Amino acid sequence: MAAVRAVHAAAFGRPEEGRRSLDHDVVVVVGHPAFYPRFGFVPARPLGLRCEYPVDEEAFMVSELTPGALHGRRGVVMYAPAFRLAAGPAEGPEGGLAR
């Protein structure tokens, strides 16, 4: 439950509290594109991040909890097993699994 509170703090206006609790510099969400931007989330794809699942680009968003944390970082965001969907991971550029 502490992790849920930390993610909530990070996502909804208290990034320092969330960053300290989670020990992470960024938070990604797949959510409603009219809701999350008010909390500092921006589309992740233009920043070089892709979701392992086939989701709408505008719904896949990221927020830096530490300014500049995404500098030089690109790739596929992989979710923990608890979040795995029945559809499985997206295919990578060569047709294989994106890892």
What does this structure look like?
- The protein is α+β, with helices and mostly antiparallel strands and 99 residues long.
- It has one domain.
- Helices cover 18% and strands 18% of the residues.
- It contains 2 helices and 5 strands, in the order H-H-E-E-E-E-E.
- It has a 3-stranded antiparallel beta sheet with strand order 1-4-2, with helices on one face. The chain has a two-stranded parallel ribbon with strand order 3-5.
- Helix 1 packs antiparallel against helix 2.
- The longest helix is centred in the N-terminal third of the chain and has 10 residues.
- It starts with a helix and ends in a 22-residue tail after the last strand.
- The C terminus is likely disordered.
List the topology elements.
Elements: H1 2-11, H2 15-22, E1 26-30, E2 42-43, E3 49-51, E4 60-64, E5 75-77
List keywords for this structure.
single chain, two-stranded parallel ribbon, alpha+beta, 2 helices, 5 strands, three-stranded antiparallel sheet, 99 residues, 18% strand
Radius of gyration: 14 Å
Question: Biggest sheet: strands, sense, closure?
Answer: 3 strands, antiparallel
Mean pLDDT, as a whole number? 75
N- to C-terminal distance:
29 Å
Unreliable stretches, pLDDT < 50, 5 or more residues? 91-99
